[in-house]
Design a protein that fits this description.
Two copies of one chain form a homodimer.
Chain A (H helix, E strand, L loop, with lengths): L3 E5 L9 E2 L8 E9 L8 H23 L4 H13 L20 E7 L5 E7 L5 H11 L4 E3 H10 L13 H12 L10 E2 L2 E6 L5 E7 L9 E2 L9 E3 L4 E7 L1 H6 L2 H12 L3 H16 L3 E7 L4 E2 L6 E8 L8
């Protein structure tokens, strides 16, 4: 199979992208780099080139894993790691600063084959939170570990621990100072969501989802968003779909967004595209819950609806793949 | 309306209790004090009397609120507070000790009328975590706050902050020492779950759910269970049901238990009893996910399935109430 790689960097409001194809031993992978007020007018041309180059690199990396017979679990973890290691996204290295001027990270992963899941919340010293989330899933009896406890666990598992300063980037620091100066009008908090995520189906028909984030700029009080909440920002089940979300986390938690898409497929018999559309473009939109999701089902169908002005995203899949955008 | 108060302290394996009635401006409230290996053989007679007396007191308290026209939100918070203030349950004052010999508390509340929710995770100094969860819901823009950040928020809201020693009870300390001595065989961790919870529908037809816990004895690494995870241990929506769970939290998170019951009602058209049964007695049981839930719908129907040997629980409702047990 020659993979078709497609990148989206479009700015149409309320537009749902969906792809239909049939899985016949092939594989599909979708990534996102956050939804929000992402418009070309807001970004310099060289920044757009940087984003497109990184997303393409991540997609090619995912393709190489799945092409070689790797699992969707390996692929989604590895692709999210790459985005965590890039300063471009609000996850890992590029995380935003909280109200105390610290970087506080959340991540989750779920294996659609086994139904197992792992998550970390509020960690400050784990270089790759997504790998810690996977360790929680595979090496502990738990699903969600938080704060210093999660960091201790990650260290015991031999994961790379870094100084909190590792996560410093001038761009995010400047944004933090600017946001702090305008703290009374916190609008800026809600307009950009650079969370990253990846969903995939592998040659064996197994699904997986992974999501990682630095949360909201100026977040306070140990706020936990939807990313590490299984069922809200991250969910995978071979029988339905794998979902990774990005957006205003509180709305995604209250609406149990990721699992709701699976539930609509399972109990109503809707297609992935119908279910994703119902949740993101109707339910969330009606509530003012801004954001988007990426999702894939076992047949390689994908959905990438978002109700914001833009969402960084890209995918590859079968030869028969065609895009509507 | 003269409320009929009923208490259950039974030991039948795999038995579902359900109640059918019609709501006509009346109200219903259900509480639980944990599911697990709760058998008369395990508890001295005077302990059973204590539990029954406390559960009765809580139910009468809830009844007085709802009878006077109070909201389900006020009732579930207040009833859970009473259980948090009692050393009998693994929540608030009676919380178990974690691996470090500390008490680390989680709680969540959800308002079925508005769809708003609040939760705290890993707090050590808030006397009533359920009241902090409600403050998160009503006084912040967030759903979930964790650790010291959540404690700071609670203090700023004027909630009662206590020394961590407030949560010490000799009984739990002895259990901690015993568990620690047998840490290699951690079986004991999974057999008792004293989480408390309350669900209610008020005279106005509004639903609410509240859950509070000290988690697992000897829990490590900042483990967060299902209680503060909206959709897993706690969920409420006027259109479907209000649910509070107790049991092996990791299974409840992975299966998005509380919301799944609502989703089955919403998308499959099942009754509350059918949906609760499907999730607790089939899905969870097949996976070895031990525990139970309490739930109520807008018509005052209640369900209290559990797949353990026992679950402390009680309810009151309409004159027409009848129990099958």
């Amino acid at each position: 199979m020659k993979a078709t790689i497609s990148l989206f960097f479009s700015f149409f409001l309320f537009l749902t992208f969906s792809v239909s194809s049939q899985n016949s031993g092939n594989y599909t992978l979708v990534i996102h780099g956050g939804a929000g007020n992402i418009a070309k007018a807001n970004l310099p041309a060289d920044k757009i080139v940087e984003f497109e180059a990184k997303l393409t690199e991540v997609l090619k990396h995912g393709d190489s894993i799945l092409k070689a017979g790797g699992t969707s679990l390996d692929a989604v973890e590895s692709c999210v790691r790459m985005m965590e290691n890039s300063p471009l996204f609000n996850a890992g290295k590029g995380a935003v600063f909280n109200a105390d001027g610290k970087n506080e990270l959340d991540a989750a992963i779920m294996d659609g084959k086994t139904g197992l899941a792992g998550a970390v919340a509020g960690v400050k010293t784990i270089r790759n939170p997504i790998t810690a989330a996977r360790a929680v899933m595979e090496k502990s009896n738990h699903v969600m570990l938080s704060g210093i406890g999660a960091e201790t666990f990650a260290a015991e598992q031999g994961l790379e621990i870094v100084s909190p300063e590792y996560f410093f980037t001038q761009l995010r620091w400047d944004a933090y100072l600017k946001a702090k100066a305008n703290a009374d009008s916190m609008d800026n908090m809600d307009k950009k969501h650079g969370t990253v995520g990846c969903v995939a189906v592998d040659k064996y028909g197994n699904l997986a989802a992974a999501t990682s984030t630095g949360g909201m700029t100026l977040k306070k009080y140990g706020r936990v968003g939807d990313t590490p909440v299984i069922g809200a920002g991250t969910y995978a089940d071979n029988n339905t779909c794998a979902v990774s979300a990005t957006g205003h986390g509180e709305f995604f938690i209250r609406n149990v967004v990721a699992y709701d898409i699976a539930a609509i497929m399972k109990y109503k018999g809707s297609t992935l595209a119908e279910a994703a559309n119902e949740v993101v473009m109707i339910k969330l939109k009606n509530q003012g819950g801004i954001g988007g999701i990426i999702a894939v089902d076992k047949n390689g169908n994908i959905a990438m609806p978002f109700n914001t002005s833009g969402m960084f995203r890209g995918s590859f899949g079968f030869d028969s793949l065609c895009f509507y955008c």
